[in-house]
Amino acid sequence: MGKKYLIPLDGSDHSKYSLLWAFENLINPNIDSVLLLSVGVLSAGTPCEYSAVTRNILNGDNEIDLERQKAEEKAKEIVNDGKLIVKNLLKTQELPIECFVSSNSDPGRYIVNLSREQKIDVLVMGHRGTSSPDATNTGTVAQHCMHSAGCTVVITRKK
């Protein structure tokens, strides 16, 4: 039995690079399994964004529900793009890929919890290599996962 990999995707070039990097350097398609995850993320009062920002749902407005639905639809698109990348990489091989899509207020915590629930061996994720002043105080999703996940964490950075 091979290893179980979790690769969170946010639609950025950095997360796509982490997916490609994992297949080039770590994943053995003959024995390993892969879980792709995208967390659609909202920030209250701002347009829908799908990067590592925190979403605060203040109430159950229809408008908020609509934004959540849009975030989940975007997350599904991102996961489907990831599946297509894997299919093109492997060409002839079939690899079992599980996909998870969520809209969650804390992507880092969600990723860590999913990695524990699914008994992930290796978490591979991209990092932009920059952080805002707020991220210096609160940390990035990658930092949270690196310090909190109960598995090996590989953080890639596109040059």
From TrEMBL:
Signal peptide start and end residues: none
Annotated InterPro entries: Rossmann-like_a/b/a_fold, Universal_stress_UspA, UspA
Cross-referenced SUPFAM superfamilies: Adenine nucleotide alpha hydrolases-like (SSF52402)
Residue span, UspA domain: 3-157
CDD domains referenced in this protein's UniProt entry, alphabetically: USP_At3g01520-like
Protein name listed in UniProt: UspA domain-containing protein
